[in-house]
Every structure is written in C-alpha cells, then in structure tokens.
Amino acid sequence: EVQLQASGGGLVQAGESLRLSCTASGFGHDDYSIGWYRQAPGKEREGVSCITGDGTAHYADSMKGRFTISRDVAKNTVYLQMNSLKLEDSAVYYCSAEESYGSSYCDTRYGMDYWGQGTQVTVSS
Description:
Radius of gyration: 14 Å
Number of strands: 11
Largest sheet: 7 strands, mixed
Order of helices and strands: EEEEEEEEEEE
Structural class: mainly beta
Distance between the termini: 41 Å
Strand content: over 45%
Shape: globular
Number of helices: 0
C-alpha cells in the first residue's frame, strides 16, 4: 500500500521561508513522481510542482522562481523549499504520487493517483 506523509507546514511571516517534506512508502522502487498541490479556503486545488523518478523537476508557471522541489532517493523523501512567502501562499499543501514508468515528465495540472494528508501553511503579515 502506497502511503505519503507530508510535513513541515507552519505559521511564518511574509518574506520568510519554509520547507515541506513528503515521505513515500509502499512503492518498492524509486521510479515514481511526487507532486505538490495546494488548496486555499474557497479556492480550487492548485498544482505547485512535481518531480519525476529520475529527478526531473517541473513547476507550475506561477510557482517558478520562489519554490524549489528536490528529492532524496535514499530517504524516499521529496522536499518543497518555499522562499519569499507571500500571504497568498497560505493554503493546505498536499503531496501526491504516481508511477513514472521511466518518464521525465510530470504535470500538476492533473491529479496523481495517491494522496497524502495535507500540511497547513499560513503566512502572516
């Protein structure tokens, strides 16, 4: 059974940084993609970034520049480094996963197959 554990959320001030973690278990191999999504109250879910099994990173256009996704294969963990946080970055952040099947492409315009619980990020002024 695939399980995803997201952590690292919290309350920060605008301009500060935060690093989220997503630890995966149950795949039995490393060829899977992890994506980060977020959802603010009253808004639709929004794709943030994803990284494939071979380490290729992709970002939603609006997320480029301040967010960096990375992967520690040995720890089965994907990180989302968020810098210069803004009030509008406040949301519940979810990690999701799907098999990569050797592909270097992932796309957070679409949901993935497995979902973890969310972690709350609140940015205050």
